[in-house]
């Protein structure tokens, strides 16, 4: 006897909840991939060449610089401020790679040339610091302050509220 199908909605079907959920997730993923803007091979090559340029160059940042992970990288936290604590200002080839775990992991062989700190994203304000590869970062520009504005003096130089 074959497994009874408990749900069959065309592409979404399964004999248990796990299969149904997997089918829904797969359909959502396929839809997102289909709707993603298509990049050209030339765009991909240009992005890779720019990444290699950043990688081979010495760290462009110095302690106290505000930086943020690049949006086109794999690091989380793009757009959130990080501060540089320490840099090893040499080209990556001079920096000892870390033998971290499995050689197929992206962390294996990283050449960590910059230590940054950030506050936690959940709003507690706790600060954590860790080593990164600087080529995955860019300068952070704080958003324009939206708080109190300085009082504006009238153009004729009179002071409001002080009658002559
Ligand atoms: Zn927190």
Give a quick summary of the entry.
This protein has 164 residues and is α+β, with helices and mostly antiparallel strands. It has two helices and seven strands, in the order ββααβββββ. The protein is elongated, with a radius of gyration of 26 Å.
Describe this structure in words.
The chain is elongated, with a radius of gyration of 26 Å. The longest helix is centred in the N-terminal third of the chain and has 19 residues, at 17-35. It has a domain at 58-139. The protein has 164 residues and is of the alpha+beta class. Helices cover 21% and strands 19% of the residues. The model is unreliable at 157-164 (pLDDT under 50). The chain has a 5-stranded antiparallel sheet, with no helix packed on it. Strands 1-2 form a two-stranded antiparallel sheet. It has 2 helices and 7 strands, in the order E-E-H-H-E-E-E-E-E. Zinc ion (ZN) is lined by residues 120, 122, 124, 126. The site of zinc ion has 4 residues, from loops.
Instruction: Kindly report how far apart the N and C termini lie.
Output: 101 Å
The best one-word shape is elongated
What structural class is derived from the secondary structure elements? Answer: alpha+beta
Low-confidence stretches: 157-164
Number of strands: 7
Describe the largest sheet. 5 strands, antiparallel
Oligomer: single chain
Beta-strand fraction estimate: 15-25%
Q: What does the radius of gyration come to?
A: 26 Å
Summarize the amount of helix as a percent range: 10-25%
Spatial strand sequence of the major β-sheet: 6-5-4-3-7
Question: Mean pLDDT, rounded to whole units?
Answer: 82
Q: How many helical elements?
A: 2
Distinct small molecules bound, one entry per kind:
zinc ion
Order of helices and strands: EEHHEEEEE
């Amino acid at each position: 006897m074959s497994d009874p199908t408990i749900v069959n909605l065309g592409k979404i079907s399964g004999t248990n909840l796990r299969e149904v959920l997997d089918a829904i997730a797969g359909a959502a993923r396929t839809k997102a991939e289909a709707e993603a803007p298509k990049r050209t091979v030339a765009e991909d090559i240009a992005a890779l060449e720019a990444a290699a340029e950043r990688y081979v160059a010495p760290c462009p940042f110095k302690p106290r610089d505000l930086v943020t992970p690049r949006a086109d990288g794999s690091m989380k936290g793009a757009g959130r401020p990080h501060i540089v604590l320490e840099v090893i200002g040499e080209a990556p080839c001079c920096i000892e790679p870390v033998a971290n775990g499995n050689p197929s992991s992206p962390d294996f062989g990283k050449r960590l040339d910059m230590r940054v700190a950030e506050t936690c994203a959940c709003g507690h304000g706790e600060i954590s610091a860790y080593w990164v590869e600087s080529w995955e970062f860019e300068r952070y520009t704080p958003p324009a302050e939206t708080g109190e504005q300085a009082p504006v003096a009238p153009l004729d130089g009179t002071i409001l509220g002080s009658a002559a």
